[in-house]
Amino acid sequence: MKKYALIYFVILGAMFGLETMPWAQSFTVGTWTQFLADFSGGLMRVFDDTVVVQGSDLRNSQTGYAVSIKSGCNGVEAAMILAAAILAYPAPWLKKLWGMVVGVLAIQVLNVVRIISLYYLGAWSQQALDIAHLYVWPGLIILDALLIFLLWIHWLGRGQRLTGEVA
Amino acid sequence: MKSTITRFAGFTLLWLPMTFALWYFSATMHASLVSPFLQWLVNASYPIHVPLVEKGSVLELMLEVPAAISRRGGPGVVRSNITLDILIYSCGIPLFVALMLATPGILGRWRSLLVGLGCLLVYEIVALYVSTCYNTLNMLHMIGADTHWLFGLPWSPQLNLLAQTTFALVFPSAIAVFLWAGLNEGFIRSQSSASLGRA
After folding, report:
1. % helix / strand / coil in chain A, to the nearest 5?
2. In this complex, is the C-beta atom of A157 within 8 Å of any C-beta atom belonging to chain B?
3. Nearest-CA distance from B62 to chain A in Å?
4. What is the pLDDT of residues A25-65, one digit of tens each?
5. What is the dihedral sign for C-alpha B150, B41, B29, B166?
6. Where along chain B do its domains lie?
7. By three-state DSSP, how is residue B146 classified?
């Protein structure tokens, strides 16, 4: 466990260090955040045609109310926490890759739910938006990462057992 | 074994509203607990005395930097208030408590819970202090002062961004999960090994 924790924090530290580099910022804050805004806005327009996307802002075209997706709100950090946990775990590389792809996707799906919920919460009450944005959702996203990791190691163990039986 | 994870997730989500409400509504008491430590740390390390005022769950540090070190120079001071919401830095507490209460078969649950809460309080004080430092550096940079005035630290936008992202956004809730994982190694191992044994 100590060795795992050490490897985990080294990988995580390297990932966070890389994320602050200007080129990484231009991807995570720029390209990825823009994609999230476009994707969330596109989903919301299916049932709410007042939503427009302006840069990384989701805006109500009738009231002018808007929420902005910023650095730290794009699920990248939670994805890195999960990816580091999977990378540090002793497992075949293909299974690590599979776990990271599915896990990061699951985090991003929940993050889109988060963005949409915050938009409508904020339109209703600024206080509710603050509570959900600053205190509730960070915990839920990290809980999601933990549960994905637990399911992944469960799946990993089952796979190892099946391989053992075939051998 | 997947049902163990489902049950664990379900119980965590059931406990979470209760632990969250308890934490949220005791914020003022909580602020009183951490503010003396923050004030002591800041005043022991800063080159000037920085008064601290508690406003509910918000701590306000009143910074007065000598104008002589700023771009405009001259006598007097440049005033700036640093506002810190303690709830942001402690939002891992309700998650940690919910995780601990939902984990099946922990030996010494209450002792582990207290140890974890103690660690989270220490983290919170450190994170509040780090936030005070990077807010001060941002302020010094904005007024054109030499940032070496604070502990001889150079201005680095990357370092400030890293400190802000990690200490205020990511770690407050992530640290709760790290602590839970450290205190429940057996439960995590069982997710892999029990499925090995059962299949």
Report:
1. 80, 5, 15
2. yes
3. 24
4. 777 767 888 889 999 999 999 998 899 998 888 999 888 89
5. positive
6. 2-198
7. coil
- Cβ–Cβ contact A18 with B under 8 A: no
- Chain A positions touching B186 (Cβ under 8 A) are none
What single letter denotes the amino acid at residue B25?
A: F
Interface with B, mutate which of A28, A142, A149, A162 (most B CBs under 10 A): A142
Summarised one tens digit per residue, pLDDT across range A74-109 is 888 899 999 999 999 999 999 999 999 999 999 999
Cβ contact (<8 Å) for B170 and A158? no
Chain A residues inside the 8 Å CB shell of B58 = none
Within 8 A of B182 by CB-CB distance, chain A residues are 1, 5
pTM of the model: 0.87
Residue B197 has pLDDT above 60, yes or no: no
Name the strand (E) or helix (H) holding A59. Answer: strand A57-60
> Minimal CA–CA distance to B123: which of B66, B161, B76, B168?
B168
Q: Rounded distance, CA A141 to CA B194, Å? A: 27
Chain B residues close to A6, C-beta within 8 Å: none
- Mapped onto helix, strand or coil, the DSSP state of residue A50 is coil
